[in-house]
Amino acid sequence: MNFWFFLLLSILKVALVLVVFLTSVAYTVLLERKLVGRIQNRWGPSRVGPFGLLQPLVDGAKLFLKEDMIPAGVYKPLYLLAPLIALGCSLLSIAVVPFGEPITWRGVKLFEIADLNIGLLIILGVTSISVYGIALAGWSSNNKYSLLGALRSSAQMVSYELALGLSLVGVVLRTGSLSLTDIVKVQSVHGIASWNLFGGGQILAFFIYLTAAYAETNRAPFDLPEAETELTGGYHTEYSSMKFAMFFMAEYGNMITVGCVATLLFLGGWTSPFGDLIPPPQNIFVHALMPILWFVAKVFSFLFLYIWVRGTVPRFRYDQLMGYGWKYLVPAAMLNIVGTSLIMAVFP
Amino acid sequence: MHLVLFLIFAAFCLAGAINLLLQTHPINSALSLIVVMSSLAVLYLLLGAEFLAAAQIIVYAGAVMVLFTFVVMLLNVGEEEKTHGSQVAKVIGFPAVVVILGVISTIVLEAQKHLGGVSLSDGVTTTQDLSRVLFHELLLPFELTSVLILIAILGAVALARKEGHS
Amino acid sequence: MNFDVVPSSWYLILSALLFSLGVIGFLIKRSLITVFMSIELMLNAVNLSFVTFAHEWHAVKGQIFVFFVMMVAAAEAAVGLAIIISIFRARATLNVDQIDLMKL
């Protein structure tokens, strides 16, 4: 039965991607602690296992064994729902990301869970839904710091979503499609020279995307929702144990997703940066797995940049943040759209 | 397959809409409405309107309803008070609902044999098809909506601004 | 029973049911913000029948109508919620029975 085969293979793909994704979330945390440690001239975690490599496991076990408290004043249904929404949205958008070349085996795409015509819109939609996780967490906690953090964060996410969406229009204009596979294929011709970032002239769009992505994922320098000196923990002040861990995982999961999207849209996805300079490998397995290696390397470099910025740039003030988003990023994104369409009209 | 999906998401829609009426706290009503809107997006997908399904999620569930929850949180609106309600609604409103529902259902059931069916293999309306019509034949209405949205933004700013600020 | 085909009329009836629920919500809800949500529910119900008819007659324009409804609904939500905020500032209540003057 073809349908059952398809279902089985899809479930296998989902399970594999989920395991790999959650493991990379755990190790992104370690990467961040290590790198920020080095930036601040210390070692970072180095006691558990060689180079501290087992630290994520111990952290996970610790969070799992903590007492799971539910404060008396919370509105329970939404208090329990909020971390689920946050983590669910964080895991959902990875479903449309293509990790490697579209190789089909018996009618099933091997290296992505779902190939959609509107993959990019799905990612934007999931991003816009993920506001609810944070907003409801803050509201249902019945705590003024949580509520302030949640209000800040929802205003920030709604504002920067606009700049984020507009910055992607240039890429879509160049491709003429919303399918992520098509977007990568356009950039695959001449290696690094045909990436949207360089050859496509989308460097301004990349900068806007990068900035908006920091704000969307609530990361430094835009981590105002959880500015610990003024809001204690922000929206997750009242959460403990696994529920806190879910928010934590959602945050790092969003970082990885943003890295994947940036790789696909601006950095040529799974294609090699050298283009045709290196002859394609003869072995069929190497041929299939090389693109995944490039993809992972690009996402890793993006995450490195993310953490580097966190360790370097101080936090914005709230009015600076909103002013920056509305007064500079949105007009710049519109300028980018007009510029890209003019160039495409003159040199078709 | 299509029938199963339709029944599941139609049930979600109706359950969400009924829950919207039954809940007394506005934030619960808002969440039920989000469930209705997301299930409608799936129904659009079943009807082959993939761009609209994405737009439904982004615009309705992700922007309009975020505004609603934001306002509920900002004003800290409490439970709904039970008050007497409008007499006109009781006398005219409810019979009118029944009549409207009856008329629409009768017409639809009457016309059922002229209407076709929907199946998963019908093909989708791609974003290219949609934009071709939108930007060729309906360019003027499209541009007019942008003016409408600009006016709405100005109106919202003017209304929500505190008195005394210049 | 064919599991792969759903009659278009079912979609239309679902749309009619959602619309009626929206009207009932508009009539029975007493909080201004929930009344506004019922209006959004009605708009969504109408959108569903637009999409169904667009599919029925293979007319892309039906879907574009939904697109316009969405844009107008977004504009309406922005203005409507601004009105709700200024009403709340002036009277500290959102109960529709207490907002019966034609001014703030």
Offer a quick outline of the entry.
The complex is a heterotrimer of chains A (348), B (166) and C (104). The mean pLDDT of chain A is 85. Helix content of chain A is 66%, strand content 1%.
Spell out the key features of this protein.
heterotrimer; A: 348 residues; mainly alpha; two-stranded antiparallel ribbon; 12 helices; 2 strands; 66% helix; 1% strand; globular; B: 166 residues; Four Helix Bundle (Hemerythrin (Met), subunit A); 2 domains; 75% helix; 2% strand
How does this structure look, described?
- The complex is a heterotrimer of chains A (348), B (166) and C (104).
- Chain A is mainly alpha-helical and 348 residues long.
- Chain A is built from twelve helices and two strands; from the N terminus they run H-H-H-E-E-H-H-H-H-H-H-H-H-H.
- Chain A has a two-stranded antiparallel ribbon with strand order 1-2.
- In chain A, helix 6 packs antiparallel against helix 8.
- Chain B folds into two domains: 117 residues, NADH-ubiquinone/plastoquinone oxidoreductase chain 6, subunit NuoJ (Four Helix Bundle (Hemerythrin (Met), subunit A)); 41 residues.
- Chain C has one domain: Helix Hairpins (Orthogonal Bundle).
- Chain C is 75% helix and 3% strand.
- Chain C is built from three helices and one strand.
- Chains in contact: A-B, B-C.
- At the B-C interface, helix 1, helix 2, helix 3, helix 4 and strand 1 of B face strand 1, helix 1, helix 2 and helix 3 of C.
- Strand 1 of chain B pairs antiparallel with strand 1 of chain C, so a sheet runs across the interface.
